[in-house]
Amino acid sequence: MMNEQMIREQICDVCNKMWQLGWVAANDGNVSVKLDDNTFLCTPTGISKSFITPEKLIKIDKDANILEAEGDFRPSSEIKMHLRVYKEREDVGAVVHGHPPVSTGFALAQIPLDSYSLIENAIVIGSVPITPFGKPSTNEVPDSIAPYLPEHDVLLLANHGALAVGSDIITAFYRMESLELVAKTTFYARMLLGGKQEEEIPRDELETLFDMRKNYQVTGKHPGYKKYS
Questions:
Q1: What pLDDT does residue 194 have?
Q2: What's the CATH number for 4-215?
Q3: Domain limits, the chain
Q4: Which residues pair with 33 in a beta bridge?
Q5: Which of 163, 227, 165, 171 is nearest to 200 (CA)?
Q6: Cβ partners under 8 Å of residue 226, min gap 6
Q7: Other CB atoms closer than 10 Å to residue 162's CB: what's the count?
Q8: Which of 50, 72, 172, 199 is the most exposed place for a label (fewest CB within 10 A)?
């Protein structure tokens, strides 16, 4: 079992990878991990993910009260979104929010990623809806994602970015990585097809793929066959 220091180091590793992959710029994005039902670690506001170190992470409770923080570091106002996820989903142990460019492009264009055309996507995350617009720093954002959490581990946030959740920080990171791959391959396919939508995997084959989640020991939620466009 990982101790707190190991978890802090893992969060920093994920933050640095997010920055290297171009999912965050300047002080964009935020990451959190649940230590127990009332204790969470989160990234501070106002600092690049490339500069995050273990001691800069903040420890908060379920009401966003600061339990431990170095200097003047404070959580992002978007921590409300993270805490709403933990409230709605007891199985979630980590939340990753970023602005992966192609995925965010689909969010800006109001195009859900709900075409079941890539095998890996069909098995791992299924369709990805776009949540309604919410003003930053308000409860509009957590309220906008809540209805989708029972069925989805990955969401596009309207005019904003993307959210991925998992049982641990690595799983949440992998899901964000899968989302961006789906967005890229979908974009490329539609470019090659002159703007037309790519052909979906036949429905009967999709049901077989959904059942394979158990064989692959894929955790989390899955919407099954669900369309948003």
A1: 97
A2: 3.40.225.10
A3: 4-215
A4: 41, 94
A5: 227
A6: 114, 126, 127, 151
A7: 28
A8: 72
